[in-house]
Design goal:
CATH class: Mainly Alpha
Strand content: under 5%
Number of helices: 5
Number of domains: 1
Helix content: over 70%
Largest sheet: 2 strands, antiparallel
Amino acid sequence: MNDLFWGISGVNWALFGGGVAAVLGGVGSAIGITIASATVSGIVTEDGEKFGKLLPLAAMPSTQGIYGFIAAVLVLIFFNILGGEATLTGSQGFAVFLACMPVAFLGMFTGIYQGKTGAAAAGIVARRSEDSGKALIFPALVETYAVFALIVTVLMMTALQATFGG
């Protein structure tokens, strides 16, 4: 059995996958929060009373970073990397890497687009603060796809763990 896949060990592939998930989720969250916060800050400058209703719109993109973090931690736990007893072959580690990609890439893109959607929805609150609940629906629609990606990643890792006997 070959321990390397494309010259990289299985544990390193798995770590790379978890790291990419955490980093891209964090990047998407940071960009999304920045986009939404720019609009929210402008509105709060004019009307500070709306801060509480606008904060969720600015904070919603933060969940993608959390999802990437969850994927990275699950890699460490599911495949015994945290305990130092990982026995992944190169191809197994590459499979773990691939399992992390749904939450990595959708976390990045949905975080950015959720920030844009939150910024647009903030305009609803600026004009009609009583419609803040309606405004939350639009970024929540984008969130749905980040949640789907997390579920797919977790299911894939669970299947891989069962397959590898971890």
